[in-house]
Design brief:
With 189 residues, the chain is an all-alpha fold. The chain has a single domain, classed as Tetracycline Repressor, domain 2. It has 9 helices and no strands. Helix 5 packs antiparallel against helix 9 and helix 6 packs across helix 8.
Length: 189
């Protein structure tokens, strides 16, 4: 893409995050995204074939700073895997607690069968897995993928409980930290 195209795409994604933050993913309309971003509706559809693809791309864009901060933290601290993983899980849950509509979007996207959404979530998963592997450095290599998948699953469960009101932030954090301690203890035993 050219610089102008990248700027248009960025404005579209920024508008989606703003709208989802304000009213949630279900109320998002492509026309409003186009108007708010200053991009023609037809042009918006050239970048994103569907509303779901646009939502997934915006979620990935919103998640990126968390992944970057955690990757940096994993490289610059002397903390062990337990402390790094706990910090990552707490930070992720706090982000969804501050913006529950983005948490609702995450849950919604997890149930999508749209191939573009599936591809975007796979890319997000690849980035998340890379960060998790970095945080789990020091564990036996054969346990890292299993522990990582378990932690990602418990995090998704906690996000779902948090955004649906079935858990408070403290309860969600306690759940993920308890499972993380159990998985990490088993991985080092």
């Amino acid at each position: 893409m050219t610089a102008r195209q990248l700027a248009r795409r960025a404005r579209l994604l920024e508008a989606v995050v703003e709208i989802v933050t304000e009213v949630g993913p279900h109320a998002l309309q492509m026309r409003e995204v186009a108007e708010r971003s200053g991009v023609a509706l037809g042009t918006a559809y050239k970048y994103f074939r569907s509303r779901e693809q646009l939502l997934a791309a915006a979620l990935a864009e919103w998640q990126q700073p968390l992944m970057q901060r955690m990757a940096a933290a994993g490289r610059t601290t002397e903390a062990g895997p337990s402390e790094l993983v706990a910090a990552y899980l707490r930070r992720a849950l706090r982000a969804f607690h501050r913006n529950p509509h983005m948490g609702a979007l995450m849950v919604l996207m997890q149930t999508s069968g749209d191939p573009d959404v599936v591809e975007t979530l796979a890319e997000m998963g690849t980035r998340s897995t890379a960060v998790m592997e970095q945080l789990l450095d020091g564990l036996p290599p054969e346990t890292v993928p299993v522990v990582g998948r378990g932690l990602e699953a418990v995090l998704m469960n906690a996000v779902t409980a948090l955004v649906t009101g079935r858990a408070t932030l403290d309860e969600a954090v306690e759940r993920v930290e308890a499972v993380a301690r159990l998985l990490l203890a088993g991985a080092t035993a």
